[in-house]
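Journal club prep, notes for RB
We'll compare a predicted complex against what the paper describes. Inputs for the zinc ion case:
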Amino acid sequence: MNNFHDNRERQFEEYLRDGVTAAKAGQRRLAQSLLERALYIKNNDARPYIWLSATTDDPREQIEYLEKAVAVDPANAAARRGLALLTGKIEPQKLMPEGAGMERGSLPREVEANGKALSCPKCGGRMTFDIQYMQLTCEYCGYREAAPESKTQPEEAEQALDFYVPTTRGHRWAAAQQLFKCERCGALSLLPPGQKAVECSYCGANQLVQSPEHEELIDPQLIALMQLNEQQVNDLARRWLSKGLFSPDGLFHSNSTLRLRPAYYSCWTFDGVVEARWSCEVAEGNGNSKRWLPASGVEARFFNDVLVSGVSALPTRELDRLAPFYLEDMKEFKPEYLAGWPALLYDCSLSDASLVGREKVLRKLRPELYSLVEMGREKRNLNISGGSWSGLTFKHILLPLWIGSYQFQGKEYRLMINGQTGKIIGSKPKDTFKQFMALLSILAMILLILLIVWIFAGNSGLF
Ligand SMILES: [Zn+2]
Ligand SMILES: [Zn+2]
């Protein structure tokens, strides 16, 4: 029985290999007959279908073959990508040349960007997105405009990674400084790469930045709206500064230097399935007869909303410390939400971010596997030798933060606040006198205990 199975398997692989060789050599008839023979032996493998699609120029036939390939192996990246290309979901001219990469130096240094001022249709005053009323609001006459309705559910925004990673878009990031021209007053200013909304530093108009570079990028799909206004984050930051055992007394009062600015940051989230191959050594026997035997296996895991920062100024590990964010609460992105709220688009490409995301998934999986595999036995050298990934999807989202700094005794300290929950991370100066006193009191305590022990021991006649 087994032999029969092995033979069929071998024959399938032989037909497939010869078929692929013929297809590559342009011998289409031969390729077709070999690949069809392979399918006659086994029809649940995607590869013959994928190669059959290369033996015809008729797009309808190509689509048919690739649909069959996806049907037997839904995770097959080559089949999905081919199908996306043929059905127009990927534009061929945006496809990355095979083996090509984007060089940091190959992108433009500076681009010209224009502003689109958001001004009141009634009085021409400055419009800002009011987070309390969830409306665009004129700062002068109070005119309000309803926020655009959002229909997309977060799950619907997920896009297949396979459709983007092979395109240049999946490898681009915001790299050029933007020579920004204000629509209102015409003043020129230089904006960092990826800045998408800005307040003109000359006339104060709130504007959306329209840069040719942004068209090369993947648009944000969802936005987690800012929940905290300036007053609220100031109160939170003050309270945070006054807390802590070793906080200098002056810290709370000296925070007139505290500056907090809001910003939306581009982030990526990833969903999918990983099958991780693991290996380790398991102990058998005890004492002298103990031996280490090799063990290995595959463990599959779903993962959901793995968050990766898209902006290098905010490393993913800091983003993780600011977590959680309520990702279920996001709205479909509309540029109007950025009126009066600066936003930074990503300078870390989707393809780079997806690698960071995969690393994060495997890092989290390791300790889980450690307790799970070969349960109850002594193990060592647990190793995850990589995973195979399927069903990968991503979302490009904007998350709200307040970024701040304050000074103390001539030194600057940074802090960041989660714009949804108010969670703060940052550095604080330590009062060295307070620390010294704490150390002193611990030493005094130890001395006291020694003294008591000595007296007790002395009285009971031990010495
Ligand atoms: Zn107005
Ligand atoms: Zn201006």
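Talking point for the session: Residues 182, 184-185, 187, 200, 202-203, 205 surround zinc ion (ligand 2) (CB under 6 Å).
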